[in-house]
Amino acid sequence: MTLFYLKLIVTPLLMWAISLAARRWGGLLGGLLSGMPITSGLVMTFLCLEQGTAFALGALPGALGGLAAVQATYTFYLLATRRLGVASAVLLALLFYGLAAYVFTHWGNLYLSIAVALLLIGVLIRASGREPRPDTLARPRHRFWEIPLRMVSATCLLMVITSLASWLGPATSGMLAPIPVIAWPLVVFAHVQSGRFGMAAMVRGNAIGAVGVIAFYLVLAGLLEAWGVAITVSLAMICAVVLTVGLATVLRRR
Asked: Which helix (H) or strand (E) holds 153?
């Protein structure tokens, strides 16, 4: 019951904080925060505590495959919206994510997933940085229900994945861990409210944050058995934050 209440409290609070940060400081920071291993970190932590470290380690290849699928989906969406409307592009992107996640998880491997994810991260950073800045930026109109809806969505997804983990198995549970339940609504809302430039800034932040997610998973893979859940997850999160902030700083100076 303690773990249940932790899921019920921590997840919506994180979504609330990230949504407010994105609203206050803009799409790039919102993308960075939502792209970091927050939802996926919570999922992996609860999988460790509820299913054991062996199960969590078995889920890591699927998680990295899912992360590669997420980056492929962002690339697809960024390109598709040059010709399609938001609604059509979102629907096709979600279908594309399901296909890509299945392919990477069941037919790929750990190293292929990492290589593809890093390649797509580079593509996204380069492509999103080339979006022309409009002469005037429209002031986004925020709906009162946006943040509560995101909080409920993130919490429900975490509950479903961790509750069904023993039935889904480690591969599928891992594949579902990096689903951008926080980032994806932010990207779509940014696109609707601020146009392609706002959406591209959010995607760019997510791509930069994904480098930290890869580091997070690799630290788990290397240290979880030897160092235990608490120390390993803490170190993995620190590595993810340091790497993400460092990369963002370097890219900003350019």
From this structure: helix 146-163
